[in-house]
């Protein structure tokens, strides 16, 4: 059964819209990752459901119709309810989630334009536009919020490590590798035994497991190497076969590859046990890249380590905490600030003398 047939079975509305199914088949044939195809299918299906409910023909929908969909997803409460850690959209869905819902709708209309079925895309996109007065940035339908990634303080990280002491060795190795190599969750769970080179303490992140299909080789620390040695001995009690590095130990999926869902559950349990609820599967990546910046690594070196095609992506991950900025301010600008404050103090003293 092809991926598209499976998706149209999952999202029945896609089967009712021939052009939508055809668009998904194109992306499938182009070799897009299954998770990407699934996300596209979900986003487009939600839009088509609204069109069906409101009696809108998606092939002729205009910007007002798309705006109605934006309003719907903006006001939609999150299914996670009280489990939502933080919100940035003022509603139940994060701004990034709303942006993700719009991507497949925009790409679908791009496809219809290429097929000659439409003359314009009602979704549009933020882009530099020379035709506007003085040029400038044309905004998309939903303003994009760019937030600095959150990283734990040193005290919070120690709390996480303390909580991790009670975890099985597999979970401790996953935490160590996730930080050491700045791995995404998918990259970590997709590691295979032959991806590691213990002699040189490096691991290979295969292109097919990465977000942008860029293969890279990254190092891990000696401490992580010690943990890995212990885990390999333990893993042999579950399976001696080569293959996925991290295996499930549940009765239902014993010795099967560890799922992304199980990995997320482990991290969530750690976060709650440590009293650091904002800690997530991506936090270790944020923290590693920020630490590399603190150590003085050049931007391009960090981008290579992270597997980014462009340094613009790296800049979204790298930031210095307020404490780091305060330390720099204290060391490098102390005399300037002292001079300025001294002048203010002199002015205050002069004013006090006059008042007497």
Automatic annotation (TrEMBL):
Cross-referenced SUPFAM superfamilies, in alphabetical order?
DNA breaking-rejoining enzymes (SSF56349)
* Keyword field contains DNA-binding: yes
Q: Per the record, a Pfam family?
A: Phage_int_SAM_1
Which one of the record's GO molecular function terms can you name?
DNA binding
Task: Tell me which residues make up the Core-binding (CB) domain.
Answer: 18-113
Q: Name one GO biological process term.
A: DNA integration
CDD domains the UniProt entry points to:
DNA_BRE_C
Question: Does this entry carry the keyword RNA-binding?
Answer: no
**Which keywords does this chain's UniProt record carry?**
DNA integration, DNA recombination, DNA-binding
Reading the lineage from the top rank, the first entry is Bacteria
**Domain Tyr recombinase stretches:** 147-330
The entry's protein name is Site-specific integrase
Q: What is the species of this protein?
A: Lentzea tibetensis
């Amino acid at each position: 059964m092809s991926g598209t047939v499976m998706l149209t079975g999952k999202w029945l509305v896609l089967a009712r819209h021939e052009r939508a199914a055809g668009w998904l088949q194109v992306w499938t044939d182009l070799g897009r990752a299954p998770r990407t195809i699934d996300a596209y299918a979900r986003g487009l299906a939600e839009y088509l459901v609204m069109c069906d409910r409101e009696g809108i023909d998606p092939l002729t929908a205009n910007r007002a119709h798309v705006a109605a969909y934006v309003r719907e997803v903006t006001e939609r409460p999150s299914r996670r309810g009280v489990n939502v850690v933080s919100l940035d959209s003022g509603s139940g869905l994060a701004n990034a989630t709303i942006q993700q819902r719009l991507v497949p709708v925009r790409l679908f209309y791009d496809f219809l334009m290429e097929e000659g079925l439409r003359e314009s895309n009602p979704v549009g996109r933020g882009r530099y536009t020379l035709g506007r007065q003085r040029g400038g940035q044309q905004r998309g339908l939903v303003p994009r919020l760019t937030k600095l990634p959150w990283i734990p303080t040193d005290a919070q990280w120690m709390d996480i490590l303390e909580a991790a002491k009670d975890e099985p060795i597999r979970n401790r190795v996953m935490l160590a590798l996730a930080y050491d190599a700045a791995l995404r969750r998918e990259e970590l769970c997709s590691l295979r035994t032959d991806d590691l080179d213990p002699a040189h303490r490096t691991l290979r992140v295969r292109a097919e497991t990465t977000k942008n299909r860029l293969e890279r080789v990254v190092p891990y620390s000696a401490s992580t190497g010690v943990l890995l040695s212990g885990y390999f001995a333990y893993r042999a009690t579950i399976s001696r076969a080569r293959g996925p590095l991290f295996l499930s130990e549940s009765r239902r999926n014993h010795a099967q590859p560890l799922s992304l869902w199980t990995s997320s559950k482990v991290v969530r349990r750690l976060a709650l046990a440590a009293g650091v609820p904002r800690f997530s599967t991506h936090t270790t990546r944020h923290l590693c890249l920020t630490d590399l910046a603190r150590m003085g690594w050049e931007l391009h070196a960090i981008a290579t380590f992270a597997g980014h095609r462009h340094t613009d992506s790296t800049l979204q991950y790298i930031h210095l905490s307020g404490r780091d900025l305060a330390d720099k301010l204290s060391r490098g600008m102390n005399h300037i600030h002292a001079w300025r404050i001294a002048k203010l103090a002199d002015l205050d003293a002069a004013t006090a003398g006059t008042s007497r």
